[in-house]
Design brief:
- The structure holds two protein chains of two kinds.
- Chain A is of the alpha+beta class.
- Chain A has helices at residues 3-14, 60-65, 118-122, 132-138, 161-166, 168-181, 195-203, 270-280, 282-290, 330-336, 339-356, 405-413; strands at 35-38, 41-45, 49-52, 56-59, 91-98, 101-106, 111-115, 158-160, 183-187, 208-209, 217-219, 235-238, 250-258, 265-269, 292-297, 304-309, 311-314, 317-321, 362-365, 372-376, 380-384, 396-403.
- In chain A, the strands form six sheets. In chain A, strands 8, 9, 10, 11, 13, 20 and 22 form a seven-stranded mixed β-sheet that branches.
- Chain A is globular, with a radius of gyration of 27 Å.
- The relative contact order of chain A is 0.14.
- By secondary structure, chain B is of the alpha+beta class.
- Chain B has helices spanning 2-27, 44-49, 106-110, 115-126, 150-153, 157-170, 184-191, 260-270, 272-280, 324-330, 333-350, 398-406; strands spanning 28-30, 34-37, 40-43, 79-85, 89-94, 99-103, 147-149, 172-176, 198-199, 207-209, 225-228, 240-248, 251-252, 255-259, 283-287, 296-300, 303-305, 312-315, 356-359, 366-370, 374-378, 381-382, 389-396.
- In chain B, strand 2 (34-37) and strand 3 (40-43) form a beta hairpin.
- The chains are: A alpha+beta, B alpha+beta.
- Chains A and B meet through strand 4, helix 2, helix 3, strand 10 and strand 15 of A and strand 3, helix 2, helix 3, helix 4 and strand 9 of B.
């Protein structure tokens, strides 16, 4: 029997009156302040709802949505079985508290159980729930992220592929590191072309995200490049695909071969730069968070366009950065804003770019075959130095697979 | 005679020069802050960014390999001289020594027809500007319920575009007469020509929604599903949604749809303070079916607006995955009271039957839905042995659909006409 159904049955056995309370015709309590005490907790019925342990007030309608009895909550889906309108519902009686639940009756005639702890609300049998740090990292909360403006040893910490592939806890540690710093390095991964998909499969970080470059984007030199990544020039630090309405949040960057001169990769933390601007030049920060920058990418057979602020917030947290100078649609920008606004924005943008281009703020490495970097595309910018082509041979071959944040989160939080 | 000829030639030259000078003054002239081009003020840095020569804009990529605004490179670049002016371009020399050309027109910037026309005429449509959308209720207007014949839609690219533009305007588009042997990929990739389209989610590439005992999702039961949007617990909720009815022989189970933007617009006019609460207060959505190894949670406000123009941009509303327990834990009481007041009022409008378009979907019918705008639901149904209700669903990025509308045909190259300058 699934966890919830089992607990509901146990509860009803402990409180045999709870199921039949409605038939007894419980009075509507209105302003009643009935208090139930059992097993070390208290729940007091008050005007607005029920006050648990003197501090947590659950509104009447919230309590009804929260009912976890098997009539109301799917034991195999962990979803409510119905979503009725409980606007005017009221708790009529509070029976008692045991462990993680409060036994309650409502004036619609239903009796059930309301969770009063995380285990009660989410517990899936008796398996441990993910740590709060993992929760907060997966929600991209700045409080648990580490912004870096110099590449410390912790930022460039390397994880061994076989360790994370064989041990789920070590994989979670790797993913948590990625979410904390915005990037994480794996070494000694398989090195053949297309191995990246096998790596993702082994790590159980799927499904990956099919996009205009395919499931697996192969980055190597082209004579007539359809994207600047496919030439051999220096690429300034940038985030990928800002023109997508839903710009990809994370990607795996896998080195298959890197035998040519030059071509070092580098990364820098935009959140650190944005925070610096917020602290020192708030007017420029405002511009970066409010002015919508148009992006457009229109190579053969594709036409992608969108406009977004450079910096997006979630509450007060820095949440996402989109910055790819190659595809700023200046012509559209002229039509969207007056010259004065644009002038101020360009000054603010330049301030950001100067920070992003500062070598002191940059992690730089020449990746070797088998090196893999997981990058937060909403936070860490990447680029590469120019490299030579022609000559005695050798190749530079990188493969990229994009992943939705929710799928990385899933791998971090899910119970085995 | 030579003297008179020489004088004539001089006069001609002067006139030409005068004309050219007059033309240059009205078309392009340098200013302190940059350039006045066809009446538009461009900043110096913008002119440099807009250079369309092949050194500055990849011929095959249409992106800039060389960044004029690359930190310490090219600081304070200035346009110093204007040269030749043609219909679509202007030659410019900058203080960094570079000589190139910038576009005067859509055509110059993006390429010859029909691409330039699409950019000029369709940008607001693919941006989902409310001014280009048509908000609807159940009965008014009826255009949103029009069924498009599959064979006509796939007959030509222009027909496909017309159907997709209709979908953008109404947030919903119906197709009928789809051959029963066609699967989702056949319809979306091969038929509608939207390549790299289908987005895999926790429900795989194509989710077959049919009755299950012990369902791991409310959709797999027989109960009614009130209006909702899908995958609210995703950090990036999918945008375009496909419903392909494969078979439907049960009793009941009618599908219905509601235009949430129409509801929000009404609330903006009557109770704007409630709309503000729905857009200011994020709530948590969670999906953790036991034993499946799936754990998704995220925060979203129910309503989001475009920051630049205030357009209604997105709604996210999935009652089954709303994490009320987390809401009660993380938000102060006063906030929750206000939010519930707003949300319950909103839901009462969403659930208003007069706003709803209802239809019993038949096998071979296909719905394209804007999952950020139009709610879908179904009435409860009874299932007996031998009956089936099977709907295949998939999701797609907005940009892939928009690209299908805006781009040229597969195989057509679009090169800028700089050689004609």
């Amino acid at each position: 029997m699934a966890g919830y159904a089992k607990r509901a049955l146990t509860f009803c056995r402990l409180f045999p009156g709870s199921q039949n309370f409605a038939r007894a015709g419980a009075p509507h309590t209105g302003t009643c302040t009935q208090t139930a005490r059992l097993s070390g907790g208290s729940a007091t019925l008050v005007d607005k709802g029920v006050l648990v342990d003197g501090s947590q007030l659950i509104l009447h309608n919230e309590s009804r949505y929260l009912c976890r009895c098997s009539d109301c909550f799917g034991g195999t889906s962990n979803q409510p079985l119905h979503t009725n309108d409980y606007t005017n519902i009221k708790i009529s009686h509070v029976e008692g508290i045991k462990d993680h639940f409060l036994s309650v009756s409502w004036d619609d005639g239903h009796s059930g159980i309301v969770p009063i702890s995380e285990t009660g609300a989410y517990g899936n049998g008796y398996k441990r729930t993910p740590s709060s740090r993992y929760y907060d990292l997966s929600l991209r909360k700045n409080a648990v992220q580490t912004f870096w403006d110099t590449p410390t040893n912790e930022v460039i910490k390397r994880f061994e592929y076989s360790d994370v592939a064989d041990d789920s806890d070590k994989l979670k540690e790797f993913l948590a590191h990625f979410m904390q710093y915005g990037l994480a390095f794996l070494f000694n991964t398989p090195q053949e072309p297309d191995d990246l998909l096998k790596i993702l499969y082994n790590l159980k970080i799927t499904p990956y995200w099919d996009n205009m470059f395919g499931i697996l984007s192969k980055v190597s030199f082209q004579r007539d490049p359809t994207n600047q990544a496919f030439n051999n020039q220096r690429l300034a630090a940038h985030t990928d695909m800002p023109y997508y309405t839903q710009t990809p949040s994370a990607y795996f960057f896998h080195c298959v071969a890197n035998e040519l001169d030059g071509g070092e990769s580098f990364w820098s933390d935009t959140f650190s730069a944005v925070k610096h601007i917020r602290d020192t030049e708030p007017d420029k920060y405002d511009l970066l968070t409010t002015i919508l920058v148009p992006f457009r990418q229109y190579p053969k057979e594709w036409h992608m366009a969108g406009r977004y602020p450079t910096v997006e917030l979630m509450g007060d947290d820095i949440y996402r950065v989109r910055d790819c100078c190659f595809v700023i649609d200046t012509y559209q920008f002229l039509r969207d804003y007056d010259a004065e606004t644009r002038e101020r924005w360009w000054q603010a943008y330049r301030t950001l770019r100067l920070l992003m281009e500062d070598p002191a703020r940059t992690v730089q490495q020449k990746l070797g075959a088998g090196d893999l970097v997981l990058i937060d595309n909403w936070r860490v910018q990447h680029g590469r130095n120019a490299f030579s082509v022609g000559g005695a041979g050798g190749r530079r071959a990188m493969e990229v697979a994009y992943i939705e944040w929710s799928h990385v989160q899933n791998r971090l939080l899910k119970m085995e | 005679m030579l003297g008179r000829l020489g004088a004539s030639l001089n006069a001609l030259s002067t006139r030409f020069s005068k004309n050219l000078q007059v033309r240059t003054n009205s078309t392009a002239q340098l200013t302190e802050s940059g350039m006045l081009l066809d009446g538009r003020q461009l900043l110096h840095v913008e002119t440099r960014n807009m250079c369309r020569c092949e050194k500055c804009l990849g011929k095959h990529s249409h992106t800039r390999p060389n960044l004029p605004f690359q930190g310490s490179n090219f600081p304070d670049v200035r346009a110093e001289e204007i040269g030749r002016v043609s219909d679509n371009f202007v030659s410019v020399r900058w203080s960094d020594g570079h000589e190139g050309l910038i576009a005067r027109t859509f055509r110059g910037d993006y390429g010859p027809e029909p691409l330039a026309s699409r950019v000029e005429n369709l940008t607001d449509i693919i941006r989902r500007r409310n001014s280009e959308q048509i908000f609807w209720t159940g009965s008014n207007p009826e255009e949103q319920t029009k069924f498009w014949d599959w064979n006509w839609v796939v007959e030509s690219s222009d027909n496909t575009r017309e159907f997709l533009i209709h979908y953008i305007r109404y947030g919903i588009g119906f197709l009928t007469n789809i051959p029963l042997h066609l699967q989702m990929r056949d319809i979306v990739h091969d038929g509608l020509g939207i390549v790299r389209a289908i987005r895999k989610t926790v429900f795989a590439e194509v989710d077959l929604v049919r009755f299950q005992n012990n369902p791991t999702n409310a959709g797999y039961g027989t109960g009614g599903l009130p209006g909702h949007t899908d995958l609210a617990y995703y950090n990036q909720t999918p945008h375009v949604q496909f419903f392909h009815c494969l078979e439907n022989t049960v009793d009941g189970g009618e599908s219905f749809w509601v235009d949430a933007f129409s509801v929000i617009r009404e609330m903006q006019e009557t109770v704007p303070e409630l709309v503000e609460r729905l857009s200011d207060i994020p709530i948590t959505f969670r999906y953790t079916p036991p034993g499946t190894g799936v754990f998704h949670l995220t925060n979203h406000p129910v309503v989001q607006f475009d920051k630049l123009n205030g357009d209604i941009h997105q709604v996210i509303d999935h009652p089954w995955s709303m994490d009320t327990a987390m809401f009660a834990r993380t938000h102060p009481l006063e906030t929750r009271i206000k939010w519930w007041e707003a949300y319950l009022h909103y839901r009462s409008l969403i659930e208003d039957g007069s706003r709803t378009y209802t239809r019993f979907l038949r096998g071979g019918e296909f719905v394209v839905l804007d999952n950020w705008r139009v709610y879908h639901g179904r009435k409860e149904f009874t299932w007996k042995e031998g009956q089936e209700r099977v709907v295949a669903t998939s999701y797609m990025d907005w940009n892939h659909m928009a690209s299908r509308i805006m781009s040229t045909e597969v195989g057509d190259h679009v090169f800028l006409e700089i050689d004609q300058h």
